[in-house]
Structure prediction request, 68 residues.
Amino acid sequence: AVVITGSVCDDTPACPADLDGNGSVDFNDLITVLGGWGCSNCPEDINGDGITDFNDLVNLLSVYGPCE
Prediction:
């Protein structure tokens, strides 16, 4: 019998604030969040609370730089 003790599939992005997928949270991601300001249930909603707002901007700025 095969026993699986954990999941081998992790769908959580390594760097959710890297909206353009270039491996870094940078100016392009900042502009993307600002462009989606006020949008409900949009990809720019980094924290997943349903709206792109100040909290998403703070999240982005807190991880600004290369993704690790």
User: Anything to note?
Assistant: The mean pLDDT is 87. DSSP finds two helices and two strands in the chain.
